[in-house]
Amino acid sequence: MAYSEKVIDHYNNPRNVGSFPKEIPGVGTGLVGAPECGDVMKLQIKVNLDTGVIEDAKFKTFGCGSAIASSSLATEWLKGKSVDEAMKIKNTDIVNELKLPPVKIHCSVLAEDAIKAALADYRGKWGKKEVAAGAATS
Amino acid sequence: MALKFPIFMDSHSTTPVDPRVLEVMIPYFTEKFGHPGSRNHPFGWEAEAAADKAREQVAKLIGARDPKEIVFTSGGTEAINLALKGVAEMYREKGTHIVTTGIEQRAGLDVCKRLERQGYQVTYVPVGADGLVDVEEVRKAITDKTILISVMFANNEIGTIQPIAEIGKLAKQRAILFHCDGTQAVGKIPVDVEAMAIDLLSCTAHMIYGPKGVGALYVRRKNPRVRIASMIDGGGHERGMRSGTVPVPLTVGFGKAAEICREAMAEEGARLKALRDKLQDKILSSLDEAYLNGHPEKRLPHNLNVSFAYVEGESVLMGLNKEVALASGSACTSATLEPSYVIAALGVGSELAHSSIRFGLHRFTMEEEVEYVGDRTVQVVTRLREMSPLYELAKEGVDLKSIHWKAE
Hints:
The complex is a heterodimer. By secondary structure, chain A is of the alpha+beta class.
């Protein structure tokens, strides 16, 4: 199967590979997929608790090149977005950007799941503080 | 020697035509173009003689007593289809049960599935963790309705060599026909249909440095005389077992390829085994949690199959595929999303099945290429592990099985 140039680029130069310690304030972690399915993505966001903006994002992925590219792209898109904006990222956006063929659409679905899981984790851990901070500044 | 890219290390899928093979084929495309079935003029006689010589060369390679036992087909897939369907149809009155293994190549498994839909019963004998079929399991699977045992000589992914002579002996004792898929083994390791009591043997030219488009089914003529129903109707070529004009140029190439393999086998096998062992040592000694798939000794000399824990097979290939042609049992290389059924059959766990890479050396593989591929494989796996969440968790001491994974 031939890969699109964007997939190859993300595979060769993955953006934002790495991990944040989970206890850092504002960090939300999503771990999705399963080893026996051949795909596992860990995606983390670091939200500025004062502004509610995602300042940084990191990923680690076990999976094919398209899975690596989908999660790498996701971290790029997350940076600078508010949590609400980040909720709107759809797997189809990833499919279009990376020109994923039909057999690789599940990679984009997994990336969307990872984003949602990281956001949910963040909200569960730090959401109240964000709201409180937001209220204090308004 | 300067390396030439991409390096071909996928010799279980196909092999390049040996220049000596090509050379003898060429005249049969142009000036010696006759139809071997034309009995009334020199063009036909010449073509028939050429096809018969090839028949002899192939027969010799597999230890067949009589060249007439060689039926030319379009390749291994057709030979397997002809053997299984041909026997099933011909011996239906006698019984409707077939014994095979779960790791046959697709052609074998798919024909069996079709036969099951047509009312036959098939027992798929499992293999052990080393990929070996237990002859006792085969024995236990036999019923009074069994008409055929079909076991591959050597596996196309893990290269494991089955106890063919023992299975042949068992089949003979029970008066059951024995088909062996020799696609990967013929020409590479000794195959002897007499000594191993094989009644039907499938093979293909392009796996032994011959052309694509021709293969053969050995059909025993004596002790017992095997009869098969033909699958293709027509002019009654190949003693009525396979109608269709014999592709003389391809057949001539097949014969020459068989002759070269027979002469070179011992030396070539030893050379490739030494190179394979070097590649294996490099990879297994440089990386933790890299696991050899298949039997460590009972294995084709040019085969190496390794699972790299915590990285997915296709991503490894992607890191190498500009420079090296390899294959993976990973689901992501196929359209099915299911990982290799062969690796899965070893019971290694499907996460390792997703991580398997197959290396296949061949006649033209150079030592420098092996060194290069070994180094690059280690680099790529190391890089991918640095971005693998599973590797990170494992290094933190987390038991991956303790995590409740949410499968899609």
